[in-house]
Amino acid sequence: MIIDCHGHYTTAPKALEQWRNRQIAGIADPVLMPAVSELKISDDELRESIESNQLRLMKERGSDLTIFSPRASFMAHHIGDFNVSSTWAAICNELCHRVAQLFPEHFVGAAMLPQSPGVDPRTSIAEMEKCVREYGFVGINLNPDPSGGHWTSPPLSDRHWYPVYEKMVEYDIPAMIHVSTSCNACFHTTGAHYLNADTTAFMQCLTSDLFQDFPTLKFLIPHGGGAVPYHWGRFRGLAQEMKKPLLKDHLLNNIFFDTCVYHQPGIDLLSKVIPVDNILFASEMIGAVRGIDPETGHYYDDTRRYIENTPYLNAETRQQIFEGNARRVFPRLDAALKQKGL
Amino acid sequence: MIIDCHGHYTTAPKALEQWRNRQIAGIADPVLMPAVSELKISDDELRESIESNQLRLMKERGSDLTIFSPRASFMAHHIGDFNVSSTWAAICNELCHRVAQLFPEHFVGAAMLPQSPGVDPRTSIAEMEKCVREYGFVGINLNPDPSGGHWTSPPLSDRHWYPVYEKMVEYDIPAMIHVSTSCNACFHTTGAHYLNADTTAFMQCLTSDLFQDFPTLKFLIPHGGGAVPYHWGRFRGLAQEMKKPLLKDHLLNNIFFDTCVYHQPGIDLLSKVIPVDNILFASEMIGAVRGIDPETGHYYDDTRRYIENTPYLNAETRQQIFEGNARRVFPRLDAALKQKGL
């Protein structure tokens, strides 16, 4: 089985975006604020949006199951207050839940949280509980910068975040550390802010002893870990100067990287440098980079090809990346699959 | 000849830091503000600080000439106002100038600028002019985020920066795009902020048409380009979605990467992915990562070894990276060397 641990519902019916635009207008003028019940998307519309997009590509590319969460760039936690984010998160998570119900063999949910800058992360827990208990979601996306590029929250190692971690540990679910749209003109969302956040999150963990407080906490750092594997020597050296343990012991029981790196040399480096136990297959399609690479004739984000072609993996390690590691990092997914005899 | 294009005066005599601390104290209480004349560092002290550190390692590692600028993390443009930065930049640049005079075969200067958050970059030009005309400096370090991790300045593509670019073009000097200390708790200075800034600067250029306005402007992006080469496919794909020309044509006549990547697989990727014309040798020693890699027994920042060992270069391309490209990107350095018959 091939599990893609990083997919967002980027192809939701237009009605969703229209409702969101009305919600944003309603922040300035409450008269314009739409009711949740005004958003109507039928199962047929959901089915169509998935069958013609993600599911079609999953079949073409040979992946079986996608861990599916709301569109990352649309989380936009910086917009409005906690109530705005809360309503928006509930809507987006419910849509992913419906997709997972419509295609139970192919999609399983991961939750966005109703974060809001300056608001205690504890307020996200109710949505998290609902998604895990009622929807059967297997993970969450945690935004380390709900301000959208102004980085006004404390680092991930701060006790500020501990209530979320306590709940994650209780439920045994990992968090993908994933920012959303940048509203800082310095940072292009998918070309800078996403990658910077990945690097930043890793370094926040490196400089701290977070995983001594939470030995079973698991973070999945997307986009191949930002700059981290490319600068693995730098990070090993920085940890050494700080008298931290080897990264293997200090971080790699808790931190994992996905394979959203859109060219062969990048995946070659990732699979050479990072222990195979810490790499999870992902493509983030249909996402930031949707085109066909003229140098290969294949989609940039068809990351399975790179994994098949890298000389640093064999059949066994490839299978770990495609399936085994995801089942280990997402124990609720593993349990759900086992229940189905998979 | 082997030219290291990225060295900072990280080993300046303690008197410099002591003077700076007094200057910082003087921001809060003007009575404490020291006069420039109170900083006294003798030539012998300078000589000693270089001979026992950078020059010793250059000889051990076989590099000949370092493009030498003030310590990056000490620029700290966020501290105080323009006058504070201006005095501090003048002091630091003068010290680098004195080092270059003491060791003319081994060091040539590059200037830090007296930037200050919210202040027109035009105010940096006088220091730049002095450093080029009087000191014979061959480049500058431009900080895209003088706020120190809050990213409050416009992107590098904004006209805000154009006065600096006009002067750079006039003098035919490149800028290394280099941030300083982060005062944002989210960003570790050398483990996150530096690498993020590299990626951010590249993406700011990618999304703009800056180099149409300045076809001869040259940016050197340090630390191996941050996350950029590792995600080269992502950047190619993003440019393609934006209908930009191929990166080769869109950016690579103007953007160059150094080799401050502290392990073999990183340099392998860099030299495989980025055209050889766009790579300049550098080590940034004695800098962020000063230890010995237990996996190799050699210093992490002894980057020459990685370049010698990578299978993606030959004698000719190696020489380009060691010398030829630096002479092309720093024309004033080339002219100075030629004048010496080198």
UniProtKB/TrEMBL annotation, chains A, B:
Keywords (A to Z) from UniProt: Lyase
GO terms classed as biological process: secondary metabolic process
Presence of the UniProt keyword Lyase in the record: yes
Sequence ranges assigned to domain Amidohydrolase-related in this UniProt record: 3-331
Pfam families: Amidohydro_2
Alphabetical list of PANTHER family matching this protein: 2-AMINO-3-CARBOXYLMUCONATE-6-SEMIALDEHYDE DECARBOXYLASE (PTHR21240), ISO-OROTATE DECARBOXYLASE (EUROFUNG) (PTHR21240:SF28)
Protein name in the entry: 4-oxalomesaconate hydratase
Organism placement in taxonomy: Bacteria, Pseudomonadati, Pseudomonadota, Betaproteobacteria, Burkholderiales
